[in-house]
Amino acid sequence: MSFISEALKNSYHTGSVWPSSKALAMAITRSFREKDGPRRILEVGPGSGPFTKVILDALRAGDEYHLVEINESFCRNLQNRLIDPYLSRSSDPANVELHQGAIEEVSLPSSFDFTVCGLPFNNFPPTVTRSIFRQLLELTRTDGDLAYFEYAAVRRMRGAVVGSDGRADIRRIDAHGKSMMKRFNGQREFVLANLPPAYVIRLCGLGS
């Protein structure tokens, strides 16, 4: 209910009125969970924490996990409901830090092996989408990967209800996504068990 309330108040930053499913969370975090050794993980736009819970459950001693969330209410919820309980129950917890603010403005201490992003790129103007992607790529190691998701057919549905300027923006965002897929060996995974169904998009080879 907290997620729905915040989504209705701020659809620009939230992008949905329903939290992501466990199936989507497992898909978007797969490469991180399959990696051995110490891992540096960045999650951007965790919202109510469906991906956060999966990541916390998979953390090991020596891992480093940073979360960046712009919404103050979501930050309090994440800290109280997920992060604090994780830290209290673990005898040797990973380093977990939550940062409130926009990803373009937050100062982070290192580059990351894995970046998981839950931001609703199709809600943003193309210039904002490109700016956020540049920041995410700068924060992710060249041998790491960047995973994000988008709802199936979301651009087609938005195109039916926005004007000509909105449709032009949608085409620019679509072109940018295709460019990123081609440049960084992009992979798409369809997740039916989500409301609505979604694609997980994973970019690899970020140094190319």
Walk me through what this model shows.
This protein has 208 residues and is α/β, with parallel strands linked by helices. It has one domain: Vaccinia Virus protein VP39 (Rossmann fold). The chain has 9 helices and 7 strands. It has helices at 2-9, 11-14, 22-28, 30-33, 50-58, 72-89, 126-139, 154-159, 164-183; strands at residues 40-44, 64-69, 95-100, 112-117, 140-151, 187-191, 198-203. A 7-stranded mixed sheet has the order 3-2-1-4-5-7-6. Helix 5 runs parallel beside helix 6. The longest helix is centred in the last third of the chain and has 20 residues, at 164-183.
Series of H and E elements: HHHHEHEHEEHEHHEE
State the separation between the terminal residues, measured CA to CA: 42 Å
In CATH, the architecture is 3-Layer(aba) Sandwich
Question: What share of the residues lie within helices?
Answer: 40-55%
Which CATH top level class fits?
Alpha Beta
CATH superfamily: Vaccinia Virus protein VP39
Structure class:
alpha/beta
Biggest sheet, spatial arrangement of strands? 3-2-1-4-5-7-6
Largest sheet: 7 strands, mixed
Q: Rounded to an integer, what's the Rg over CA atoms? A: 16 Å
Strand content: 15-25%
